[in-house]
Amino acid sequence: MILANKLIYWYLHNKRELPWRKTKDPYRVWLSEIMLQQTRVAQGLPYFLKFTEAFPTVFDLAKADENEVLKLWQGLGYYSRARNLHFTAKYIAKELNGVFPKNYKELLQLKGIGDYTASAIASICYDEPVAVVDGNVYRVLSRYFGIATPINSTKGIKEFKELAQTLIDVSQPGVYNQAIMDFGALHCKPQNPLCNECPVLESCVALAKNSIKELPVKEKKIKIKKRYFNYLVPITDDNQTVLEERTGKGIWQGLYQFPLLEAKNEIDEKELIQHEQFIKLFPEETIISLFNNKDIVHKLSHQHLITKFWVVKTREVNEKTMSWSAVKKQPVPVLIDKFLEEYLNKES
């Protein structure tokens, strides 16, 4: 309990004032927790404000069109979170009459809610003593106790969850969980932690053994895959273009993009116009220009997209066209969004 007490004391004097901390409404807590997965608070906060303004209740989110949800989510990445959010909102609104499950086990049954999110909602909203374990918690616990078990291993996940559960303050589990997460985010930071001002420095094993920089331990990352994307940006005589929905189970499912020609390696203009996909899309003569002089390397967690945008002026294109004003309304990956911003500013 000594660690819990000290972290809670630190938290009460140093916590961040955030909108989702002013309520125990499970809808808002759930929304914030889903948004902050793989996302910094500074980045997620404006999205939370936009979402709660557009969808004040779970019923509003449930009634929304998926495209509207994805458009508001645009730029946050990991779009499966947004689709799961929308799916679960519809389930809660229709099947549960808008009432969230009130315990960890039942919350865990909802789509898109894993151990961490279920623990956060159950502890913060319903005072159930279930410990959260996120990146911040892994870091604090591994350093404080000097644990070198890889945090992304099956053994590590189990070990840290069990340890976290033994430490939780059962009288105020929500406060404790938020305290240890904030402490990891603001004080026991990945780089340059504030060890000299640490409230638990006297009992921190990593500090005593000078192993702060080595902890937490992660198993080797998956090899990064390189993919070569060639986006074809049709411009017709009447200044229309083509945007199509990205299907399949891969990245950016349900978002919109320009026709994509993916190659095994980098290709030049000659190879591009000889490609079967290009010939099928453009039956008539074209004028091609490469928009970006240097390849754009868009980095995702397990893959790097080496990207070219080819502007193709043509009289005819074998796809349904749309205006640029319509393009702006569609949810697109951030890679496409950045291109649109540059291209439309250049053209205006």
From TrEMBL:
Its EC number is 3.2.2.31. Its cofactor is [4Fe-4S] cluster. Belongs to the Nth/MutY family. GO terms for biological process: base-excision repair; mismatch repair. This is Adenine DNA glycosylase. It comes from the Bacteria. Pfam families: HHH, HhH-GPD, NUDIX_4.
